[in-house]
Write a structure and sequence with these properties.
CATH class of the largest domain: Alpha Beta
Number of domains: 2
CATH architecture of the largest domain: Alpha-Beta Barrel
Number of strands: 15
Number of helices: 17
CATH topology of the largest domain: TIM Barrel
Radius of gyration: 21 Å
CATH superfamily of the largest domain: Aldolase class I
Structural class: alpha/beta
Bound molecules: iron/sulfur cluster
């Protein structure tokens, strides 16, 4: 059966290599780069094989990981060419790649620009060396700055910078000085994630052993609030809990698909694909992934078909991440339900508490509500007796460099 779509879909490519593992990160990657060539051949074969049953059109390609910038421009170009060869890529497609500042030179960035990438996501994380050291990053603050300027000089106009805040001991003044430097570099887009202690990571183990202490909740809430105020003042609109853009056209086209129930295909180890109502994900191990492709099998680890209850739960969780919130008309039409009747009581209580607002037929979180996303989603789920079974946000939302 060949699958078709109406809205343009996205393609995600997972490059499973990093120079060194950062202690807070739970994305899949290995530091042995010796499998890079054979991985690349498997990846290109996976794209070709999957394309045989897909007649979608696509307007975004996102090369994430891991650290895609361990690849040189020619290797990235092979991936982009494969996407254009095997899939219907629309003119003007957004072609993004994540860049770790410790892996690029100004020449490499120029070569990336020539390879067809038109949007860069640079994993700055902080402009302070002590924070970068705590996060186990392989680059200095100066290298991060050079990478941003190098990308600008290479001709990239659509540049996003990624930051992490809420580092133990970090004051509001210190975090805002990072944002001040970011604003001076004038990127199109900023992603600001709070430091999370993901299970199984060395940083979470250190937290459990009492070797580090998470910042108190009220301080984290203060930093979240200060981020929004500072960036609004500098011309960046929050369009998702952690994402800010100078204009609607500079939002991440690809990542918006994750929050809007739009299909996407994922390639590479651990990559997730979503062809509603089905989601499936690939084997995590690079070796197992290559082994599957070599034996003529797709490297799919598991598939699940979402029930309507699961789809509603996801629509709430993902819709509430967006500043514009859940489109109530679209929700009613898609699920053949009456959103306001289904969640009447919980909406009333949350509105009274200043945690959500209903405007122009959208249900959105207030800033205060954004801090309580998980609890609020649980209230929706419980109020309508929906089954749980929601994927974690980390699995649904893009990767990080
Ligand atoms: S944060 Fe990025 S660079 Fe660090 S280990 Fe994770 S994927 Fe690799």
């Amino acid at each position: 059966m060949t699958l078709m779509n109406t809205e343009p879909s996205g393609i995600y490519i997972h490059i499973p290599f990093c120079i060194r593992k950062c202690p807070y990160c739970d994305f899949y990657s290995i530091t042995d780069l010796s499998l890079r060539q054979v991985f690349l051949e498997s990846l290109l074969r996976e794209m070709e094989t999957v394309s045989a049953n897909i007649n979608f059109h696509f307007d975004s390609l996102y090369v994430g990981g891991g650290t895609p910038s361990v690849l040189d421009a020619e290797e990235i170009e092979r991936i982009i060419n494969a996407a254009y060869k095997h899939f219907r890529m629309l003119p003007g497609a957004e072609i993004s790649a994540e860049v770790n500042p410790g892996t690029v030179t100004s020449q490499k960035l120029k070569d990336y620009r020539s390879s067809g990438i038109n949007r860069l996501n640079i994993g700055v994380q902080s402009f302070q060396d002590e924070n970068l050291h705590f996060l186990g990053r392989i680059h200095s603050a100066q290298e991060a700055c050079l990478a941003v300027r190098g990308a600008q000089e290479a001709g990239f106009e659509n540049i996003g910078l990624d930051f992490i805040y809420g580092i133990p001991g970090q004051s509001e003044k210190s975090w805002l000085s990072d944002l001040q430097k970011a604003a001076e570099l004038s990127p199109a887009h900023l992603s600001c994630y709070t430091l999370t202690y993901e299970q199984g990571t060395p940083m979470e183990a250190n937290l459990r052993k009492g070797q580090i202490q998470a910042i108190p909740e009220d301080a984290a809430a203060g930093l979240f609030e200060a981020t929004g105020v500072f960036l609004a003042h500098h011309g960046y609109e929050r369009y998702e809990i952690s994402n800010f853009a100078r204009s609607a056209s500079q939002r991440s086209r690809h990542n918006q698909k994750y929050w809007s129930d739009i299909p996407y295909l994922g390639f590479g180890p651990s990559a997730h694909s979503f062809l509603p109502p089905e989601r499936y994900w690939n084997l995590r191990s690079v070796k197992a992934y290559i082994g599957a492709m070599n034996s003529g099998r797709l490297p799919v680890a598991e598939r699940e078909t979402l029930t309507q209850e699961q789809q509603i739960t996801e629509a709430i969780f993902l819709g509430l991440r967006k500043s514009e919130g859940i489109d109530i008309d679209a929700f009613d039409k898609k699920f053949d339900k009456d959103f306001k009747a289904l969640f009447g009581e919980v909406i009333q209580n949350l509105e009274a508490g200043g945690l959500i607002k209903i405007q122009k037929n959208h249900c959105a979180l207030s800033h205060k509500g954004m801090l309580l996303l998980d609890s609020i989603v649980s209230m929706f789920v419980l109020s309508a007796s929906l089954s749980q079974g929601l994927k974690t946000s980390g699995e649904l939302i893009s990767s990080e460099v």
